[in-house]
Amino acid sequence: xxxxxxxxxxxxxxxxxxxxxxxxxxxxxxxxxxxxxxxxxxxxxxxxxxxxxxxxxxxxxxxxxxxxxxxxxxxxxxxxxxxxxxxxxxxxxxxxxxxxxxxxxxxxxxxxxxxxxxxxxxxxxxxxxxxxxxxxxxxxxxxxxxxxxxxxxxxxxxxxxxxxxxxxxxxxxxxxxxxxxxxxxxxxxxxxxxxxxxxxxxxxxxxxxxxxxxxxxxxxxxxxxxxxxxxxxxxxxxxxxxxxxxxxxxxxxxxxxxxxxxxxxxxxxxxxxxxxxxxxxxxxxxxxxxxxxxxxxxxxxxxxxxxxxxxxxxxxxxxxxxxxxxxxxxxxxxxxxxxxxxxxxxxxxxxxxxxxxxxxxxxxxxxxxxxxxxxxxxxxxxxxxxxxxxxxxxxxxxxxxxxxxxxxxxxxxxxxxxxxxxxxxxxxxxxxxxxxxxxxxxxxxxxxxxxxxxxxxxxxxxxxxxxxxxxxxxxxxxxxxxxxxxxxxxxxxxxxxxxxxxxxxxxxxxxxxxxxxxxxxxxxxxxxxxxxxxxxxxxxxxxxxxxxxxxxxxxxxxxxxxxxxxxxxxxxxxxxxxxxxxxxxxxxxxxxxxxxxxxxxxxxxxxxxxxxxxxxxxxxxxxxxxxxxxxxxxxxxxxxxxxxxxx
Length: 647
Description:
20 helices
């Protein structure tokens, strides 16, 4: 799809012609003013003129009331202004043999006079008219076009989007398929007395494909598609927004059947009565006009409104009632099956190597939206181009995923060998505990290469998407998060423990708090809720502890402490029993820097890794934990996304 070109040719050519006409008019006036003076020849003083006559240099003259013109004997023309009442001039001319004659006064050109006098006003009017015309273009953004709609009309001349381009949201597609069928064959529904929903509200996180889904509906139905943002209705002038709503529906009626897509409708559709101006607020007037147009006395046949938002909780109830936005279609974050389909759509546009596995990438990207996956494929293609490869291999996708999730590698960091050794044992501690916890997700990768704010990482990937978590899995995640700190304590001693476990401690404390206060997993406190979320529809906000006695709050804190300390003891028991595996894995990380999950499993079973490439050897030293970068220098043992982050 592309924007429809306005009729009348190229607007730049129009502007060029207008300014060219103004320039030619100015040239004409200048030439008109200068014609008389240039044709009369050189200007002489009257005394010099008399001297030339006395010398015999003048051939002939014409004497007028206000000007004397003539020609020298050398054919040079001249002009001069006479002195009034010079009676001796005819005699002087006659004595020197100069031919002379009288000159009739020129009658002024009335048309030219009027044109010259009115030219400044015409120029001002022309420039003003041209400026107003320019401001009115582009959807009424100028002074005379405030009330014009800014909606852009898209047609299917090229770049047509269909449901084949939308993957991973099958339920939302099925909900909207009926709208497509109505636009194709309206009589099929109307003959049975049925009415198609007037509006559909697409609700979902940013990047889930709400706009793409709306364009696919228009592409499938083959109807015009108007798109506008909710913020385009709002202006500081009263009544402008309501006027734009009216103009938008007038344009839609002329192109019916059609689809009008309003993106970020919460910018104009918020609950009324909360603005500073109450009912006189410009935004509320715009919303009132939108409500009237959607369900007023005049039927808008063939016009379907599709809106998108990620905050349906703030919308006015009148906007969501039946007859306006009849359907609310949730466009969720895709699951593993959806992510695999979305990756397939985007991977079809790049040349792939045979080792690329979309299923493995889908497993490794929990929580990614459609836009995130598109960015992942693009980053992989850019990496392959920088490496001068003809095909995008799985290695590029893995590197791109790490870059998107944690940032680019920071190989320029300076770090001593002792600090690098501590990082290796820290990550090995996470990995060994995860391997020996039956409820833990399998390890996908372990690395001690810094990325973003992390100095190292153990990534675990779930076999499938998890929508709820059992108690044993939560205890396993708590133990894994404590594995890095416990490994430092066992190997380096209590006094040499670093600040690298700060993010692990934060995660463990947050998980334990949710288990106690939200999920009822404390034997002493029972299945009661002690905290509630203060958040919007998509989970933005914090938590607030409910009213409780001091004794209950102390018990909550003690239960959280008991869970975290229990996980610490659990991790300590696992690592003490498998200390030889801890040393083996840490040494392998120091040698190879990055190990895949299968390589870690092979190392612990056979004591060696069958890798065709040679070891990298010691890498460039990097900065210390807690000294050079005390806040950013964190190692994320739980960055694989396997553990729950909230309710």
